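Dear colleagues,

As part of the handover before I leave the project, I'm documenting each prediction I ran so the next person doesn't have to rerun anything. This entry is a single chain, and its sequence is reproduced below.
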Amino acid sequence: MTEHVDVAIIGAGLSGIGAAHHLHTAFPGRTYTILEARDAIGGTWDLFRYPGVRSDSDMHTLGYRFRPWTHAKAIADGPSILDYIRDTAGEAGIDRHIRFGHRVVGASWSTEDTRWTVDAIHNGETVRLTANFLYVCSGYYRYEGGYSPDFPGIDRFGGTVVHPQQWPEDLDYSGKKVVVIGSGATAVTLVPAMTDRAEHVTMLQRSPTYIMSLPAEDKLAVRLRRLLGARWAYPVVRWKNVITQTLLYQLSRRRPDLVRSLIRTATVKQLPAGFDVDTHFKPHYNPWDQRLCLVPDGDLFRALRRGTASVVTDRIAGFTTSGIELESGEHLDADIVVTATGLRLLAMGGIAITVDGREIKLPETMAYKGMMLSGVPNFAFTIGYTNASWTLKADLVSEYVVRLLRHMDAGGYDECVPVNDDPGVTERPLLDFDAGYVQRSIDDFPRAGSRAPWRLGMSYAHDLVTLRHRPVEDGIMRFSRNRTTNAA
């Protein structure tokens, strides 16, 4: 017999554990299961094991709304975040609902039966279950491997080449010359972290990125926890950080020259005298055209001041047996090269989705409120913000799914599906973001629309009103009852 659950959640990472907590709290009697392809809780935070791995957002917004972050450091290391996720799952008993080693490959919706049939591969065999509602929380990273350009001559390099997403546990970089290719969040994390043992670490970038220093410890949060306790201090600090992030983003969009000048001034103060700031820390794009990189307590700048790290801005001509030849003619000697050159995206975990036997091609669908697909019933997914913490959006999506299910219970509905029948809505990219990892894969994703509710917003305040408070019935979300089920 095929097992049936009320809700099937795909992924046991930050989003999936949060989704399960919301559902478990709202509907204690509802059945659910989490299908996780890997053998551990944590998703990205269990996968990434490179030196210094940490959050690129403060933990008062990256943490769950329902569970205060109580550590002193607001910019937290990967192991601490992983413990936070696992503790959340353990305390609520969510871990007992996880099926590890179950990689979902297909999901088929039947209108006649008003249910999903989900196929997963476990130990080389297909496992099948059915569910009333399918909730995809697999993120959008391709876990099999990151993005590495085809560098000329890389095969003749005599040293070690490693991508951060597949960091070897036994890699010893003590006393080695290390070159980190890249300038994004991973690169600016790796460079200072590896200076503790490496002879020297060089960050080789094709073009600069905006980098801001942020205190690793939020002193206001520490004081408020002492005065009010963690439960009351957490929402205050969370909203303080949300407002700060929003104001910075809005100012960056409206007054980019001002923000660029402010970032440059702060950068100059943290670098050695005479450092060529305009070559290495002056991006060609405006702030927040791509995500800003945060460095806790200016650790990257501190490494540059000490001389244990350096930055080179140039293009790679090719690899040699002993390092990297640059287009300028300079040669970088290296024992280890880290290709922090980006990630690869995978829409909906690569699941093949069908509705009544019809294959759903994601680029032909439109995302409703950034969390459901046009023409796909009883289905939701989580994609977080690119200009703020992922979990801010993930929590709101979970809250909306709870509201949606309650509305269906109250009305006796079996099916909900967003329908785009407005010819005036034109298509837009789902993620309007200029980062390379997004642009390489965006055509494989659902589309966004030119106006609400098909436009994917990047404003937490706006989404909070829309997803938490506005009516579920909006004329676009259609509800129906299964006559066969009701008759029975």
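The CA atoms of residues 238 and 244 lie 10 Å apart. The chain has a mean pLDDT of 94.

All the best with the project,
I.
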